[in-house]
Amino acid sequence: MEINLIDLNKEEISKPILYKVKNEIWKVKINNQAILKLLKYENALRRQVCANTKTRAQVQGGGKKPWKQKGTGRARQGSIRSPQWKGGGVVFGPNLNRNYTFKINKKVKKLAIKSALSAKVENSIIVLKPILEKPSSKKFQSFLTKLKVVPNKRVLFIDFNFDYNFFKSLANFPKVKYITYRILNCYDLINADYIIFEKQAIIKINEVY
Predict the structure, then answer these.
(1) What is the band of 126 on the pLDDT scale with cuts at 50, 70, 90?
(2) Residue 144: helix, strand or coil by DSSP?
(3) CATH fold of the domain at 2-47+100-208
């Protein structure tokens, strides 16, 4: 299979070069079940534990017995920190030790990434990235114009190594996300309308997957 390769160093792009990629990665049968499972896994990793309750050992007060054991006609009570009291501890409540993550097979992960790449192959572009001497939003905007990216669409830029100048250049573009191939994930792939790969990154992805 072939994807358009564009040299961003050139001022004008007459015709893109066709870059050959592996069919085993970019032209597989899309497995929605694998994609869904990996998305759940990635969202579980991102999930923050906020709900937290206190047990009877953690709430304040209750050092003294509310009333004597016998002779009052009321039920026996040992502490106002007991769960049946207002302001007492909570039994089996949520706490900060909760873990939402679960295990997923490596084969399922790879199948999900391949399925996501195959689903987005039509809107994928490979680029020969220029070297920026300093961050420049204006230059990055000109790159997007050269690539004929529709404005206000979500763009994912996948680089080989982290480039600070490129990262800062797209800081003013809220719908453009910059990652390296090492943190390639299903959520960003599915969420993007356009995927731009740096050439070295695509070579590494072909090796890994």
Answers:
(1) confident
(2) helix
(3) Ribosomal Protein L4; Chain: A; (3.40.1370)
